Amino acid sequence: MCCSERKGKLKKGLIIAIDGPSAAGKSTLGKLLAREYNYTYIDTGAMYRALAWKAMQLHISEDDENSLVNLLRQSDIALKNVQKDGELEIIILWNGEDLTPFIRTPEVSMAASKISALPQVRITMVELQRIIVGQGAVVMDGRDIGSFVFPNADKKFFLDASVEERSRRRFKELKEKGMQVEYNEVLDDLKKRDKNDTTRSLAPLIKTDDAIVIDSTNKEINDILSSMKTEIGGFNKKK
Ligand code: DC
Known about the structure:
The protein is α/β, with parallel strands linked by helices. The protein is built from 9 helices and 10 strands. The strands form 3 sheets. The chain has a 5-stranded parallel beta sheet. A 3-stranded antiparallel beta sheet has the order 5-6-7. A two-stranded antiparallel sheet has the order 1-2. The protein is globular and about 50 Å long. The N terminus is likely disordered.
């Protein structure tokens, strides 16, 4: 598809897809890129996390696909980009309620990984993601953005890092939030989530042939950011 047109609509900006396993640096780099280009950053993992958290609150089982889909269809999910202390923060609203403080626990991470493997949940969530993106000008991070949600994305990145490095990062992040966790638990959790994410039947995490693969192990964020910017190349930033 031509870069200036998508589904018959005039496109207002690029769709930049960032896929990869948990804790590979997708959200850090996604937010930085979005700020750089004045784009909207869409954290699709937060959408699965919000559904998982809501389902937990409502005692809906992780494998009750129909109830999860109904819950999703009856709800209004919105992602807001907010500038705070010079950084981009993502707020996730569920029927107007701010769920941001609740969705980053290890329990929600695991539940999100499980429910996201249910085909009808994913199909419903992907419909919503495509609507949210509208005419582009987005940096979207997830597992299936370049392979399934937007196979015609203008730029596709696949961010990777060793599971040990990713576990160290996640462990540090959780500790900084004051959570009681052990490194080995975090490592086991990430291995389980990697397995769920790469082996599910619909839209598993894969590297597409046209994705630019970046291994973030032992690399500085700023170096990765500048190589992503070089790959994206020059175009008119959104005003
Ligand atoms: O990126 P994250 O860790 O916040 O994502 C939480 C879970 O949601 C992850 O284990 C897999 C799932 N997910 C997905 O299946 N597809 C996406 N596009 C984004 C996340």
